[in-house]
Amino acid sequence: MATAKDIMHPGAQWVSRQDTLEHAARLMRELDIGALPISDENDRLCGIITDRDIVVKAIALGRDPARTTCSELCEGTPRWVEADAGVDDVLRELEVRQIKRLPVIEDKRLVGMISEADIGRHLSDHEIAEFVESVYAGQ
C-alpha cells in the first residue's frame, strides 16, 4: 500500500514564526507554491500560512506585510500526517478537515507536503472523484 511519503512532494521548506509575511510571500513566489508550513523555535510544525491568508487576513485589512509576522496569522492546531501513514489515512485527514494541503512528518521533522496535485498524480480516477466530492461538497 502506498504511503504519504510515496505521494508527497519532498523537500518542503518552511518559514519561522518570526518571519514576516513579506518574506513568506517572496518564498512562495520563488518556489511557485501557495502554502508554507510554519516552524516554532524548536523546528516543530506550529502552523501553515497560505497565499490566501496573506491577502485576506493581512493585506485586505491594511496590515503591513513587512511588519506582520507569520505567527500573527496562525490559527488553530496544524494538521499533519506521519510519513508512513497509508494513502487512505491521508485522504481521510484531508476530507474530514476540509483542507487541501497536508505536511508530512518523519522523526518529528518536516519531510514533505501533500497537495491536491500530488493526489491527482497518484490516485485512480475513482479515488480522485471521491476526494473532490468530499472536500468540495459544502463549498
Q: Could you characterize what this model shows?
A:
- The protein is α/β, with parallel strands linked by helices and 139 residues long.
- A hairpin with a 5-residue loop joins β3 (35-39) and β4 (45-50).
- It has one domain (4-136): CBS-domain, CATH 3.10.580.
- The termini are far apart.
- The chain has six helices and seven strands.
- The strands form two sheets. A four-stranded mixed beta sheet has the order 1-7-6-5. The chain has a three-stranded mixed beta sheet with strand order 2-3-4.
- It is globular, with a radius of gyration of 15 Å.
- The mean pLDDT is 89.
- The protein has helices at 4-7, 21-31, 51-57, 87-97, 116-122, 125-136; strands at 9-10, 15-16, 35-39, 45-50, 81-82, 101-106, 109-115.
- Keywords: CBS domain.
- It comes from Nocardia jiangxiensis.
- Pfam families: CBS.
* Strand numbers in spatial order across the main sheet: 1-7-6-5
Beta-strand proportion: 15-25%
Largest sheet: 4 strands, mixed
Annotation field: number of helices: 6
Element order: H for helix, E for strand:
HEEHEEHEHEEHH
| Secondary-structure-derived class | alpha/beta
Straight-line N-to-C gap: 31 Å
Q: What's the number of structural domains?
A: 1
* Global outline: globular
Helix content: 25-40%
By CATH, the topology is CBS-domain
How many beta-strand segments?
A: 7
Radius of gyration over all CA atoms, rounded? 15 Å
